[in-house]
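Preliminary data (for renewal application), hypoxanthine complex.
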Amino acid sequence: MSGQIAVIGGVSFDLPGEDFELETPFGQVMVRRARLGSREVLFVSRHGQNHLPPHRVEYRAILWAVSQAGADRVISVNTVGSMAHHPPGSFFIPLDFVEFTRSRKNTFYEDRAVHVDLSQPYCPQVRLALAGALRSAGMEPFEGVYVCTEGPHLESPAQIRMMSQFGEVVGMTGYPEVVLARELELCYASLCIVTNPACGLGQGALSLAEVVINMQRSLEMARDVLARAVELLPKERHCDCRKALEGAGL
Ligand code: HPA
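Predicted structure:
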């Protein structure tokens, strides 16, 4: 069935439902038919049961699988550190990105030149729905540039000083999802959950426990915001995401 919405969940983010396996050219993916408020959505846990580190996630398999399963819109949930003093527990919607990854396959087109346009890397319709959902839940959405690092190590203070010239939040999972979705002509936007001040900007060392605990605190709110966003999404896609391949190849 086409026209579905998929949610890609990050650290500790989950939706209840029934799993099925999908075979893709890039490996098997566990997809879940899940409930979000009154709607059925598709859900994929990005890190899977064995919690793959961000640089080993097969992003192509995930995007391919949700597209195969009938999704044409994707909402990604990503945890981030803030380089601009957003409090932990606040939500951030990327408008654009910069990336410092190294080892990730970032295209489905290995054999021919396809250059998708990224003038608006994140779907404006899905972004608007997320922003509306946050406001209706009583929160002001922060927006700006997402910086993606390779990880798995956290950043050094000097890296954060450099990257804070480029963007407001830093994470390890937002890229290449955003461009792979565009190559499949899917609408894609991200709901980032700020779990910590970026390295060097908080008090002392940063631990994964801090990230996980703060994520878990925001879990219910994130589910509520997503449920509201799904309700706010217009039935029809009016954005250019659905035509991303027009004029992208020779
Ligand atoms: N850096 C990179 N990725 C992250 C962070 C961070 O501070 N917090 C959550 N994901």
